[in-house]
Amino acid sequence: MSETRELKAEPDGDTDAARLNAVSAVEVFGPDAPLALDSGVSLSPFTIAYETYGRLNADKSNVVLICHALTSDQYAASRHPITGKPGGWWSQMVGPGKPIDTDRFFVICQNVIGGCMGTTGPKDIDPRTGEPYGLSFPVITIGDMVRAQAMLLDRLGIKDLFCVIGGSMGGMQVLQWAAAYPDRVFSAIPIATAARHSAQNIAFHEVGRQAIMADPDWRGGAYLSDGKTPTKGLKGLAVARMAAHITYLSEAALHRKFGRNLQNREKVTYGFDADFQIESYLRHQGMSFVDRFDANSYLYITRAMDYFDLAADYGGVLANAFKNTRTRFCVVSFTSDWLFPTSDNRQTVRALNAAAADVSFVEIETDKGHDAFLLDEPEMFATLKGFLDAGAEKRGLGQ
User: Fold this and answer.
1) Could you say which of 124, 337, 344, 371 is catalytic?
2) What is the mean pLDDT of residues 22-37?
3) Within 10 Å of residue 301's Cβ, how many Cβ atoms?
């Protein structure tokens, strides 16, 4: 069963949805199509919410799958239904004439399993109890996310992908796709990511999870079941977002944007209000985040990232994950990214080289930190456009 809704242009001038031929849809997988999870249990029934842009060609050879990061969703290039923000989180990359050209490619972006924007996650109703899953939702992995995505493509009659692309956690999914479904992936673009989550990154995630679980309003994950969810969201989730957001930036970017500038005052208050602009900025990031994201989803998705270790599934040798691959790879890193540094990306490149894969690698000079893949980076745009155009020519896709 499926539900599809075409997105129309908004009266305030947001014509992107119409130009993109944007469609928002939900696919329902019933008891006859359970999702087998790495934990050994199955999830059924479940739904996958997704968006598409552009048009599918006759032989279904022009499909680009965008895999989103931890706190993103399927709204890569259209207005977000909760925040109202137009354009989507990757509007600079996706659209007519852009690197992911919707006049040439049919683009799909799915909300991951465990998410909170229409795909089944811990905030949804457990059919066995009639109550929200909460912490009874099964723990999920990057592999589970990709397996669900493959099930959706099967349902849509799409046998293979021209390209799988994503940054951060999206990049993990790209690597998982290339390893698990090599015959279905013509090209892969993992950006600012790693083939395993580092101890430092696990540590940052644990700080965030503990902030959530220490919030008395979290109530053991049952804050939705008892109907007592604070109207302004969970403060613990806001703190988790604040801590994580620091890791997405660089010291240079923070200094350039904020320095030690005071927030709407001439001198410090000798108190604990937000004296500094950076304090005010982080508080805003935290409080706006709780309006659009579920606290339990944050627990589950960060845990999925922590568990990611691609080599572990292939005898501890990362190159084995890409053995005999025919996929074309373009790996991208950023000089100021200390969350997924260039060294992590180079490990992936070395493994691909060891597997004799077709791989190109670019390290982009920038002071914008990990979030550079979401920002205006002309060198990244040019690199990816060139890679996709060359692949399209090889694939026989028209202009």
Assistant:
1) 337
2) 96
3) 27
44 is catalytic: no
| Structural domain spans, the chain | 2-196+312-395, 202-301
- Between CA 97 and CA 103 the distance in angstroms is 7
Burial 344-371 (b: 16+ CB within 10 A, else e): bbeebbebbeebebebbbbbbebbbbbb
Lowest model confidence (mean pLDDT) among 2-11, 55-64, 310-319: 2-11
2-196+312-395 fold: Rossmann fold (3.40.50)
Q: 72, 89 in Cβ contact below 8 A?
A: yes
Find tokens 């927030």 and name the residue. 263
Q: How many residues does the chain have?
A: 399
pLDDT tens profile 209-229? 999 999 999 999 999 987 666
Exposure string of 97-119, with b = 16+ CB inside 10 Å and e = fewer, is ebbbbbebbbbbbbbbbbbbbbb
Mutual orientation of helices 169-180 and 295-307 as an angle, nearest 10°? 50
CB 192 within 8 A of CB 167: yes
Q: Which overall architecture, per CATH, does domain 202-301 show?
A: Orthogonal Bundle (1.10)
Catalytic residue among 61, 78, 168, 333: 168
Distances (CA, A) of 32 to 1, 108, 268: 12, 24, 63
Does the active-site annotation cover 14? no
Report the predicted TM-score, pTM, of the whole model to 2 decimal places.
Answer: 0.95
Place of tokens 């990061």: 69
337 is catalytic: yes
> What are 67-110's pLDDT values in tens digits?
999 999 999 999 999 999 888 999 999 999 999 999 999 999 99
Instruction: Please identify which of the residues 68, 197, 205, 370 carries the catalytic annotation.
Output: 370
289-328 pLDDT tens trace: 999 999 999 999 999 999 999 999 999 999 999 999 999 9
